Amino acid sequence: MGTMMGLVKAERAPGAVLKEVPIPVCGPDEVLVRVKATSICGTDLHIYKWDAWAESTVLTPNVFGHEFAGIVEEVGRDVTNVKLGEHVSAEGHIVCGVCKACRTGNAHVCPNTRSFGITAPGCFAEYAVVKATNVIHNRADMPFEIGCLQDPLGNAVQTVLSGDIVGKSVAVIGVGPIGLMAVAVAKASGAGQVIAADVNPYRLQLAERMGADRTVNSASQPLSAALMEATGGEGVEVVLEMSGHPDAIRGGFEAAAPAGRVSLLGIPTREVSLDLSRHIIFKGLHIEGITGRRMYQTWYQLKGLLDQKRIDLRPLITHTFTLDRYEEAFALMASGQCGKVIFIHDPVPGTGLKEEAIDYGQLELA
After folding, report:
1. Which is catalytic among the residues 3, 38, 43, 231?
2. Which residue is catalytic, options 3, 38, 46, 279?
3. pLDDT in tens, the chain (366 residues)
4. Of 209, 288, 295, 349, which residue has the fewest beta carbons closer than 10 angstroms?
5. Is residue 46 annotated as part of the catalytic site, yes or no?
6. What is the CATH number of domain 3-149+313-362?
């Protein structure tokens, strides 16, 4: 079918290479998408750097990337739910559909999952193939650079809405891009005070833009003490842990209010020791482990928030690049001096890209 340019994890070592690769073949139950915009996930940075997680998980050689928006270019012969020309994104977890988890409404934790852009070919390319059952339809007026953010937004939405939120004090610990989204989702969902905690001043300023009522720099003050002070000594009713840092996780549990909820999305790179008696058992905490998006409940929830403009993700987009500038883009991600970094695959007038979004590349925070 021809060739395309794709960003490939060619070797099991740091880095990546932009090279000519075959356009993927669309199977009978799949669709071929012309990719218009993609975004870099923290997972992609792990793959680019090639850490221990990547070594144990990622298949190579492979086009990576899993957050995208585009237009359907070809439809497999058995596909009935997708049409040519539709604007789409996709759920990245490719699940079996027949295991107990899948058949009981828990496909997001299917033990047979293949992951788009991690253990299956991804989207940092001109074209991508996805299962028709995984396709998410986007409104034609949704800018592609917003559409590609829905996958990580789903992480934030599942985390925030994994328990009661209305009127409750909320701490978002770790305001990388998903934590920043969680701030906005918590506010939109009727949370009480929303506190953002991080060690990165740039990201804390972004958290204020996304609606945080209070910020805590845990590099300059102990996290648990700051959260207790912010809640008048009561503790935080809803702790959303997005950093995966052992000290931050411990601080979140210490500051959680009795009978509170702690939802864990951040991935620690090593074992974390906790005082289970004092900070979990005798407090009667509710703990949620979060992975991916509930399929497909979370997608409908995030669509409701986005389509009705309950949340605005535009301030989150701080930099845009073309794919050939991937080295700059990944270096920026590694620095932490950014919000969400977007690849514009086809910056041609009339593609639906909004000029004000492309201008976000000039955004500077004081």
Report:
1. 43
2. 46
3. 699 999 999 999 999 999 999 999 999 999 999 999 999 999 999 999 999 889 999 999 999 999 999 999 999 999 999 999 999 999 999 999 999 999 999 999 999 999 999 999 999 999 999 999 999 999 999 999 999 999 999 999 999 999 999 999 999 999 999 999 999 999 999 999 999 999 999 999 999 999 999 999 999 999 999 999 999 999 999 999 999 999 999 999 999 999 999 999 999 988 999 999 999 999 999 999 999 999 999 999 999 999 999 999 999 999 999 999 999 999 999 999 999 999 999 764 443 343 333 333 333 433
4. 349
5. yes
6. 3.90.180.10
Architecture of domain 163-289 in CATH? 3-Layer(aba) Sandwich (3.40)
Burial of 200 (0-12, 13-18, 19+ CB in 10 A): middle
252 burial (CB, 10 Å; 0-12 / 13-18 / 19+) is buried
Domain boundaries, the chain: 3-149+313-362, 163-289
In this chain, the answer to whether the domains covering 3-149+313-362 and 163-289 adopt an identical fold is: no
What global pTM score does this model have? Answer: 0.92
